[in-house]
Each structure stands twice: as C-alpha cells, then as structure tokens.
Amino acid sequence: MGTGIKTDRRILRTREAINRAFLELFGEKELEQITINDIAERANVNRGTVYLHYTDKYDLLNRCIEDHLGKMFLSCNMTRTPDGDVGLISEMKPVFLYFEQNFLFFSAMLANQRTTIFRERLLEIVSANVIRKLEMEKSVPEGMDKQLIAHFMASAFVGTVEWWIQNRMPHTPEEMAQQVRSLFEGNTMYRGHQ
C-alpha cells in the first residue's frame, strides 16, 4: 500500500511540474511556439513523460483549464448555500482568494489574447451560475431575457477579474469580493423587481 501512495505522489508531482512549466512558457510566448520539448525541459522530465500524461499541448491546455475551473468552483463551494443562494455571488471572497493563490495560472490565461478558450469557459460557468440564481429567486424583470442578463453579469465579472489580474491585484481579495458583490447587489437587473 505504501508503494502505491509513493507512486501516486510521484505522478502528481510530475503533473504539477509539467503544468507549472507549461504555464510559465504560456506566459512567455504564443501557444504555437511552445513545443513538448520546451515543456519537458522546463519541467525537468523526459519528452515521453509529458506524452504519458497528455496527448499534446492542446490537451494540456484544456486539461489545465478544466482542472483549475473545477478546483475553483469546488474550493469556493459554487453550489447552493444553506440559505438557498448561489455561491458565486453571495461568496465572492473565496473566489478572489483562489484567483490570488493561483495567480500564475490566471495571469497566463488572461494576460493577453493568446487564447479565448479559458475566457469562454469561465463566462459559460459564471453565466450558468447567474441563471440558476435568477431561476431560484424568480427575479427576472418583466420584458427582460434571462440569458441576456446572465451574459451581462458574467461579462462584467470576468472583465473585472481580468482587470484585477492584469494590474497585478491592486486590491486584496477581500476588497474585491466586497466591491464586486456591492456592484452585483446594486444592479436592478440582477435583483429583479419585487
């Protein structure tokens, strides 16, 4: 049993090294310019080791994105809270703390226009979260399209995160959480009409 645990840890450490190397390279140059050899060299592993874990650099990019978004939403409890609220809007602080703790990943993904895959996935997830909240609270203002509201709110959130990351986090996660939450709560489209 002890050997299995050691092997698992070794595999995890190798994957982490590959991911970190890829993200560092991704922050330095275009995806097309990054080779598996570059990644292997930076991660201090064999080229074959990279292929053991990932099909190619596009698979690595997609798995990196899905893994981080999954971890972010799990760690931030992006589900309904005990009072029935949806976590993303009611609990902003854990979201911004996660962004801060994983700055390398988010700055690589949001620093420039190298890829839109990450931004699109984040928009999709945030938008779905907003739609769930609107449906739970039955708070879509008369004559408004909930898809439009959700896209508007998600775009505002993702744009704000981009600004914060690109400016090297000029406010603490706590300050960001408080201000973004105030902006969301102050939005009549989001609150709906009683």
Automatic annotation (TrEMBL):
Pfam families: TetR_C_8 (PF14278), TetR_N (PF00440). Residues 12-72 form the HTH tetR-type domain. Residues 35-54 bind DNA. It comes from the Bacteria. Keywords: DNA-binding. This is TetR family transcriptional regulator. The lineage of its organism: Bacteria, Bacillati, Bacillota, Bacilli, Bacillales.
